[in-house]
């Protein structure tokens, strides 16, 4: 069934032709079929904008002492190497703490010095 709609205004005539009924093929099964055709089945997601934090050293393999550190780790094994590294880091932190006590630095300054020591260790290759 075809219906013709005609509207007249002050400036002229506007004619529109509507083919079909108000109960057209957009309802029922046809609507569901059309909807499923327009929706993508798989959505690809790109890389996340903010990567999760990583404990990995950004300067791994770089730095003056990196080759010596890698050779030592390969000789004595990863487990023993990490134990020695942990002891060395703890001893260095104690030395920094004692230094801060002797000069009267507060805990915030001490923490800043420990972070600076870690950064320098990364740059020099001690954490390779």
User: How big a fraction of the residues is strand?
Assistant: 5-15%
The total strand number stands at: 2
Task: Note the main sheet.
Answer: 2 strands, antiparallel
| Helix percentage | 40-55%
- Summed up, the helix count is 4
**Can you tell me the overall shape?**
elongated
Broad structural category? mainly alpha
> Strands across the major sheet, in which order?
1-2
Radius of gyration: 36 Å
Spans where pLDDT lies below 50 across 5 or more residues: none
Order of helices and strands: EEHHHH
Alpha-carbon distance between the termini? Answer: 79 Å
Please identify the oligomeric state: single chain
Average pLDDT score:
75
Give the arrangement of secondary structure elements.
Layout: E1 2-8, E2 13-19, H1 29-38, H2 66-76, H3 78-103, H4 107-124
Relevant terms:
PGR5, Proton gradient regulation 5, about 130 residues, 2 strands, two-stranded antiparallel ribbon, mainly alpha, elongated, electron transfer activity
Characterization of the model:
- With 128 residues, the protein is mostly helical.
- The chain has a domain at 65-124.
- It contains 4 helices and 2 strands, in the order ββαααα.
- The protein has helices at 29-38, 66-76, 78-103, 107-124, and strands at 2-8, 13-19.
- Strands 1-2 form a two-stranded antiparallel sheet.
- A hairpin with a 4-residue loop joins strand 1 (2-8) and strand 2 (13-19).
- The longest helix is centred in the last third of the chain and has 26 residues, at 78-103.
- The relative contact order is 0.11.
- The mean pLDDT is 75.
- One of its GO terms (cellular component) is chloroplast.
- One of its GO terms (biological process) is response to high light intensity.
- This is Proton gradient regulation 5.
């Amino acid at each position: 069934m075809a219906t013709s709609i005609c509207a007249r205004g002050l400036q002229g005539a506007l004619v529109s032709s509507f083919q079909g009924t108000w109960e057209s093929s957009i309802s029922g099964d046809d609507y569901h079929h059309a909807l499923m055709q327009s929706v993508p089945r798989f959505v690809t997601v790109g890389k996340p904008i903010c990567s999760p934090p990583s404990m990995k050293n950004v300067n791994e393999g770089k730095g003056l002492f990196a080759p010596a550190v890698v050779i030592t780790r390969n000789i004595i094994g990863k487990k023993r190497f990490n134990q020695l590294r942990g002891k060395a880091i703890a001893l260095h932190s104690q030395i920094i703490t004692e230094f801060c006590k002797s000069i009267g630095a507060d805990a915030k300054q001490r923490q800043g010095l420990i972070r600076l020591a870690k950064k320098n260790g990364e740059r020099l290759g001690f954490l390779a």
